User: Fold this.
Amino acid sequence: MNIIEAHEKGRNSRMVKICCIGAGYVGGPTMAVIALKCPAVEVVVVDISVARINAWNSDQLPIYEPGLDDVVRQCRGKNLFFSTDVEKHVFEADIIFVSVNTPTKTSGLGAGKAADLTYWESAARMIADVSKSDKIVVEKSTVPVKTAEAIEKILTHNSKGVNYQILSNPEFLAEGTAIQDLFNPDRVLIGGRETPEGQKAVQVLKAVYAQWVPEDRIITSNLWSAELTKLTANAFLADRISSVNSLTALCEATGADVTEVAYSVGMDSRISPKFLNASVGFGGSCFQKDILNLVYICECNGLPEVAEYWKHVIRINDNQKSRFVNRVVASMFNTPSPERNCGARLFLQERHGRHEGDAGNRRLQGLARR
Ligand SMILES: NC(=O)c1ccc[n+]([C@@H]2O[C@H](COP(=O)([O-])OP(=O)(O)OC[C@H]3O[C@@H](n4cnc5c(N)ncnc54)[C@H](O)[C@@H]3O)[C@@H](O)[C@H]2O)c1
Assistant:
C-alpha cells in the first residue's frame, strides 16, 4: 500500500499534507528528504523562530549539511514549504511530526538529568487546540519512554471528537552526514499502539518511508520499544566511545598503542571497527543529554544499579576531557596564556560547535581557559 492509497482509503483523494513542528537540525533535513522522495505529499515545516524560517526560505540555510542545499532547491516552493504560521498548517495536516528541542532540564524535579518536555507539551496543547480533523502525531524528537502516554492525555483531554494516533519515529541521523543518513538509513523505526487504528497509522507512515527505504529496513514495534530504542542506541554509541577512551590512559601507562589495540579489537566481526577511535570524548547535542535521561528514567523506575552503570559512561567522558586539557596545560609548562590556548579553543569550538551550553562542554572550556 503506498501513501496515496493509504490516505485515500482513510479519507479523500487530495494531496497528503505533512506538517513538521520544529525547523531544526532534524526537522529541516528530514522533511526536505521526505518532500524530495514523495512528490505527491505536501510538506510544511513550521517554527516559532522567524529568523530560522526566514533562513530556510533564503539561499543561506540555517544549518550546513552536505547535499542539503541541493535537496531544498529541488523541492522548495513545489511541495516543500517553510512557515511561521504554525496553527494554520497544523490545522490542515494529516500527519504532524513534532521535532522540537528536548534539552536536559535545568530546574525543578529531575534537573540536570531529565528531558525538558516543555516545548513538546506546548506543541501538543496547540495541536489539541487547533485540530478539527483526525491526525497522526509523530514523535520525532528524542523523548523519554512513555512520553506518548502523556501526549495522548493532552491531546484527548478535550479532543472534540478528533481522533489522534501517536507514533514514535525516532531519528538516528548524525549531524554532518544527515542527508546521506536520510537517503540510506540503516533502519527506520516506527512504533505505534497495538490497536487496529494504531496499526493503520503505522502503515500510513510506513508508506511514506517506503517511497525510498527498502521495506526490510523499516521496522515496526510497539510505542514504548520505539521510544526506548532511541535512548538505548545513543547510550550504546556513547558507551563504545567511553570504552575505548577508558583504555587510552592504560595504553599511555604501559606503552601499548590505543590505535593498534582498537584496530585489532575491531577486526572481530562481533565487535566491528565502528566508533572505536580513541578521542578527547564525545560532544554534540545528544549523547550526554540522552544518557542522563536514561539514567533518570532508571532511577524513577527504582533501578539504581542500572542508572549507575550508564552514569559511568559520562564519568569516563568527563575524565577524558579533563585528561586532554591537563595534557595541553602540562605541555605549556603549566603556564597557559590566552594566546597559547588558542589552538585548544579552536579545537573545542570546532568539535563542540553549537553546543557550548552543555554542562560537560562548559567545564571543558573552563579548563581550557585556565
Ligand atoms: N541534532 C541531532 O543530531 C539529532 C539527531 C537525532 C535526534 N535529535 C532529537 O531531535 C529533536 C530536535 O533536535 P534538533 O537538533 O532539530 O533541535 P533544534 O534546536 O535544532 O530545533 C528545534 C526547533 O524547534 C522549534 N520549536 C520549539 N518549540 C516549538 C513550538 N512550540 N512550535 C514551533 N517550533 C518550536 C525551535 O524554535 C527550534 O527551531 C531533539 O529531541 C533531539 O534530541 C537530534
